[in-house]
Amino acid sequence: MRSSSAQTGLAFKDRFEEGATNNIAHDVLVGLRSEQKYIPSKYFYDSRGSRLFEVICNLPEYYPTRTELVLLFSYATDIVRGFAHGDLVELGSGANWKIRTLLQAMGRSQRSDVRYVPVDVSSSALKQSAADLETMYPELRVNGIVADFTRDLHCIQSDRPKLVLFFGSTIGNLDEREASSFLECLAATLNPGDRFLLGLDMIKPTEILEAAYNDSRSVTAEFNKNILLVVNRELRANFNPDSFEHVAFFNEEEERVEMHLRARRDIWVQVRKVDASFVLRKGETVRTEICRKFRRISAEKMIHDAGMEVSRWYTDPKGWFSLLEAVRDRG
């Protein structure tokens, strides 16, 4: 692991380095060899993908970000009250809008006493957002970690008190088995007194869910196709985004939105970095994302089964989005 510091208070550790290509190669090969072809959604977020997602978050159809931000503004003081001498760890940090609400609620003296630890798969997005925060809050120490939180949770272990943040209902991008494994590993990193704050997108009418992933400006479609450009760049593949159409729908049985890219014609794809090729028939899809939606009873069971207990629950008046705070099970 390499560590570098560009300026006082701003430091980074890169867990990827040589292993990054191996990780994406393995994930893409497994996905494209599956009966339902898929590419893991974490590869959306290079610098361009992160910028597109920021645009999506401001679209009128996309309710999750603004609803979660209202919750954070409403309860930020309560969330950070008494947090001192600790690490504010944000998994999948991306842009820094949400963490600003908590940092602002802290005030200067409290901020100077904590360390912000953003963890993200995109080095460029992580460094840009961390630098922005340091400009806004020069007293804040930022220790960024370029890592895949689904594999590298051990990198956040610390003797300092922790408030671990997992916003955006990103937990919904993991299937039931993956989420269970992730939460069990996360629970193992928590010490007595540590807290875990989890954003959850709740079940709501199908038309609202589907509109959020099929915006009228087609920004989500462009974001969806960006994953092909990431694979092209990292693995020297020859995906042509124009050969695919964006598809997003609510799967009622699984209670999740699914995003796919559907082949407009028969396509032969070469992945030169790993000397592999694949055929996609016209109408066949590559699934790029699942976005599970939650009910309170299922969310609390998921937390309990992972060895944690729910300590606080915040939600908006419509019940569209929730923030769940959990601690390690004391039993």
Summarize the structure.
By secondary structure, this protein is of the alpha/beta class. Helices cover 36% and strands 27% of the residues.
Write up this protein.
With 331 residues, the protein is of the alpha/beta class. It is built from ten helices and 14 strands. It folds into two domains: 9-20 and 49-205 and 294-328, Rossmann fold (3-Layer(aba) Sandwich), CATH 3.40.50.150; 34-47 and 209-292, no CATH class. The longest helix has 18 residues, at 63-80. The two termini are 36 Å apart. Helix 2 packs antiparallel against helix 9 and helix 3 (63-80) runs parallel beside helix 4 (97-106). Mean pLDDT is 90; it is low at 1-8. The protein has helices spanning 19-32, 47-57, 63-80, 97-106, 108-111, 123-136, 176-189, 206-212, 219-235, 296-305, and strands at residues 2-7, 10-14, 87-91, 115-120, 141-146, 162-166, 195-201, 244-251, 256-263, 267-271, 276-280, 285-292, 308-315, 321-328. Helix content is 36%, strand content 27%. Strand 6, helix 7 (176-189) and strand 7 form a beta-alpha-beta unit. The chain has a nine-stranded mixed sheet, sandwiched between helices. Strands 8-9-12 form a three-stranded antiparallel sheet.
